[in-house]
Amino acid sequence: MERSIAYIALFAALIAALGLIPQITLAFGVPVSAQSLGIMLCGTVLGARRGLLAVLLFLLLVALGLPLLSGGRGGLSVFSSPTAGFLVGFPIAAFVTGLIMERMRGIPLVATAIIAAMLGGIVVLYLFGVAGMAITLDKSFPDAAALVLIFIPGDILKAVVAGLLTAGLARARPGSLLSRNS
After folding, report:
1. N or C: which end of the chain has fewer CB within 10 A?
2. pLDDT confidence band for 24 (50 / 70 / 90)
């Protein structure tokens, strides 16, 4: 129990730290940051339930006003910005990523982690993100989707990095990969 709580807090901090990496903010207000890598790692390392809880803890801290999002943003107002759909999708993306990690055991770990990160951390996250952008920017879903196509190559790279980091962690400290040991 204590170990799970420590991992949840550690990964919430990891998501926040990844927001400090310099980013580019596009004209319509969506920043390019490494925080989605943290969301992917929550799922690949912690699994569905713990990954979800880590992201919810992070979002609670953001909602309380801590400037933990990329660009030093925080507070309730971010939940009505063009990025709101991505924020809502963060915990669901981590959960789906973790669920795939927990259930898909028939292929090598690195491949499983990359697939899980792509499906949860890109496909699921973009469904929520694009829907949120469509609503907040008053655009159709296809028009909002066109705005985020530029992010896909970087997010694919992040999914590969998440897979490699997860596999490396499993080799270095096998017991720390909670998505496979619970």
Report:
1. N
2. low
Q: How many CB atoms lie within 10 A of CB 108?
A: 10
The predicted structure's pLDDT at residue 31: 60
2-181 — its CATH code?
Answer: 1.10.1760.20
Q: Where residue 23 falls among pLDDT bands split at 50, 70, 90?
A: low
Predicted TM-score (pTM) of the model is 0.93
Give me the residue spans of the domains in the chain.
Answer: 2-181
